[in-house]
Amino acid sequence: MGAFASAERRLGHVDVLIVGAGISGIGMGCHLTSKQPGRDFAIVDGRDAIGGTWDLFRYPGIRSDSDLHTFGYEFKPWTSDNAIADAHEILDYLREAVVEHDLERRIHLGHKVLRANWSSADDKWTVTLRRSGDEQLIEVTCNVLFCASGYYDYTGGFDPVFEGREDFSGPIIHPQAWPEGFDYTGKRVVVIGSGATAVTIVPAMAEDAAHVTMLQRSPSYVLAVPRQDPVANTLRRLLPDSLAYRITRRLNLARQRGIYLGCKRYPKLARRLIRAANRRLLPDGYAVDTHFNPDYNPWDQRLCMVPDADMFKAISAGRASVVTDRISRFTSEGILLESGAHLEADVIVTATGLRLLPFGGIEVSVDGQPVDPGDRLAFKGMMLSGVPNFAFIFGYTNTSWTMKVDLVCDHLCRILEHMDRRGHTSFMPVDDDPTVTRKPMLDFPAGYVQRAIHLFPQRGSHDPWTIDQHFGRDKALLREGPVEDPALRFATRRLDAHEPSAAERVIA
């Protein structure tokens, strides 16, 4: 694949600046090239590679936890036999999308956005970036700022303090900072955690380690799913890729929604079904209720998916085990538990979660006044009240993230088209409805969410301020509903005869 835009090719003024070259930012670029072919835009990313999550995380077994027929873009069929895909397959898919939509020349890697200020007098953003390599700060301007930077802190994950950590004689690794080429062959490994990352790492490391123990404070729901989707693969053999993909996407979305609603409406039945499925995959007499029966209901937190039951197979083969206990302290040879038991370890992996960070930590201001995202309402789940010409993506927690990406990108393209037709130069959601009551953006009790939810925009009690985590409702609102809304104000600025130069200005 050809080289992306580098520090030698300088940024100037663009109509749309996309922050983030992961699945969301590349998706926005693809939508713009197909729906707004004359639109000038650029994609910037502070890292030196595209892919976001799928390039950042390098831990063993890294893969999707939902099927790629819904996690992929609606406009680009997923044609691999694997529905649950490894990171390298997802990266290949994203690279193909970049080439197919001629995005290489628009992507500027090594450009980290630090702050952005909207000028009402000029109807444009001034964005300050740090360029890696020379560490210079540069300013660029844009009419619309689109944040596709994800929801967590790329600089490091959540790594709680454990007493005695400095006493442990071996390496302690957080999955977000996995060392390249790390060899754990024949090692005794303890993985602390019980979420999606832990259940991915355990079976992957168990293939070469002497033994892997997943140490959890409390259980999570773990559900085995097939890595390959027989229906999707059959349809692909019988039908054109695009048609087979559309059918599979609808079937899988319906199945995901059905499982979610079934768990929420009939939690006791869902719990029994998941327990029974787990019991069939584990050795006779295994303590299922101790290690795989949480004290919360299914889908109160996200279910952990394991392809082809790989984790259960590793446990059944004796290559992996689960311990449910609390940590007293680290020792030189492992971990002392509150029960008095001691887990011997050569390597400790702290799969203890992420640190959430809205908008990649960008300092946003309007006319020099700082914007605190936690004080703002989210308009249609994609804009901030009181912030002009700004949009963002926050995907779904109860189905594939990218289902929301396509809807948001499509809606923003419709807004841009509407502005072109009417001659508008700005749009801004206005929170002036006194009947709207506020709630946290996510009603999700997971620890990593609750630690940082106050940093994120809030949702309102009724449209257009709701965030429903419901694809059908969002489709009706964002794709089928009108662009115009009483709470979305459009404005027109009289342009000067001579606009400022688009040349880059080095400020430090």
Automatic annotation (TrEMBL):
<keyword id="KW-0521">NADP</keyword>
<dbReference type="GO" id="GO:0004497">
    <property type="term" value="F:monooxygenase activity"/>
</dbReference>
<dbReference type="Pfam" id="PF13738">
    <property type="entry name" value="Pyr_redox_3"/>
</dbReference>
<dbReference type="InterPro" id="IPR036188">
    <property type="entry name" value="FAD/NAD-bd_sf"/>
</dbReference>
<keyword id="KW-0274">FAD</keyword>
<comment type="similarity">
    <text>Belongs to the FAD-binding monooxygenase family.</text>
</comment>
<dbReference type="InterPro" id="IPR051820">
    <property type="entry name" value="FAD-binding_MO"/>
</dbReference>
<keyword id="KW-0285">Flavoprotein</keyword>
<protein>
    <submittedName>
        <fullName>NAD(P)-binding protein</fullName>
    </submittedName>
</protein>
<keyword id="KW-0503">Monooxygenase</keyword>
<keyword id="KW-0560">Oxidoreductase</keyword>
